[in-house]
Amino acid sequence: MASTSPNGGRPAPAHGPAAARRARAAAVLGWLALWQLAAWAVGRPLLLSGPVDAVASLVSLASTGAYWGSVGLSALHVALGFLGSAALGCLMGAAASRRPGVRVALEPPMLALKAVPVACLVVILLLWVGSAGVGMACVAMVVLPAYYFSALEGLGARDRTVERALAVMGVGRGSRLLACSWPGLQPYLAATSRVTVGMAWKAGVAAELIALSGTTLGAQVYQAKLLLDTPALMAWTVTVVACAAVSERLVTALVAASVPWARRLAVSLAVRRGPAAREPGTVLWARGLEVSHGGVPVAAPVTLEAAPGDPVAVVGPSGAGKSSLAAAWCGWLGPSAGECGPDAPLGLLTQGTDLVDGLTAEENVALVCGDAAEARSVLGRLLPEGCLGRPVRGLSGGQRRRVALARALAAPAGPLVLDEPFSGLDAGARDSVAAAVRGAARTRAVVFLVHGPEEAARLGARVVPLSPAAGA
Fold it and tell me: Taking a C-beta distance cutoff of 8 angstroms, is the pair 217, 240 a contact?
């Protein structure tokens, strides 16, 4: 019996990469056929040369060294202008995202560059750099504002949660940039590249044409126009389109591949630097510490001191303000009253785990501790061996939680702030976590933020209850 599809008996549409490639090929062939029919209908090759004549001219041109010399020279101009300007635009966007004054100063020239017509830009650049460099300079001027605004928007919109946690644990700015900022920027740069690469080729060739720059593609287009050689004109145009398409694929592939490279380079740099020295005896303290949201205190002031061998558990129900206290120790939330310390890196476990998803469990820990062997050792006490080399995005919630705890324990910082260390764990995992943190508390100051006194007792910690704010 024949099977029927759920859409009324019609065959289901094909999906997948192969089907998409076939659809694109069919679309290209359809447009080529339409082009050829239009050329036959016009019947005057001088006005409209069809694809058959254009391909024949292209094959003839491609058999000469002059053709490839023109392609190579224009490609060099476009590549130098594009890469240099894209890098400069990203750096300027990064500076503007950090400094409001820089952003205000750069906005007028960037908006002006976006609006200036290419023809006007070419004439101005001819006066400045001459015909030999006008193609490269025009590409640079077209590309610069696109990557500037892309970097500015991407860096402003990225999720800083993981970066902030890594900063608290003493990870350097360069490693944070490679592991977090660049991957967060990648979608914006990829979208910009898909548009800008083609624009760069159009601007570069147009500048070469107007300037009659050497033996470049633009100059060849102009020569074909002078000779009224329409098939050659079409062949050079197809060449420009093909160069733009290949360049776009290459650039977008490089942007995508740069993300795993950057993350692994961040880990390599951290391991090469090695672990920082841990200062023994550092205490965690709070004196009359009060934090507020919207001017309203979240809890009564807290006073405590946790020293090596004397861990403290701040106990309170959900919503009592425990995570706000952790934010105060991290420097993310300023106290509305009192003070806390130390003003130094901390080993940190937040409720959100804050891992670098593109890295493995072992790489996440090594990024913070700077020692691959130490990372494996700490993880081995909390996770099965098979999980260590897997990307954390593929781990369960409980496994990710234990990776985040291992990262905090392995951090070179002395004091530890652990927010809900048992959250999301089964009974067996809780036993291994409790044993690990009790061991750490013998030599490091630890503050736990937990729901009840039974969790504090399991961790061997002295209880400091978190009371409601006055009038709450």
Answer: yes
Which domains can be identified in the chain, with CATH numbers? 45-273 (1.10.3720.10), 284-291+298-465 (3.40.50.300)
Q: What is the percent of the chain where pLDDT is above 90? A: 73
Q: Residue 256, Cβ neighbours under 10 Å: how many?
A: 14
Task: Render pLDDT for 72-114 as a digit per residue (tens, 0 to 9).
Answer: 999 999 999 999 999 999 999 999 999 999 999 999 999 999 9
pLDDT above 70 covers a percentage of the chain that reads 96
What is d(CA 37, CA 91) in angstroms, rounded to the nearest whole number?
A: 49
Q: Tokens for 225?
A: 């126009």
**Which residues are CB-neighbours of 318 under 8 A, at least 6 positions away?**
451
Quick: pLDDT tens for 282-323: 899 999 999 998 888 888 899 999 999 999 999 998 888 899
The 10 Å CB-count burial string (b at 16+, else e) for 345-360 is bbbbbbeebbbbebbb
Cα pseudo-dihedral 285, 287, 291, 296, rounded to 10? 160
**Residue tagged 């069919």 (tokens):** 26
**pLDDT-based confidence at 59, cuts 50/70/90?**
very high
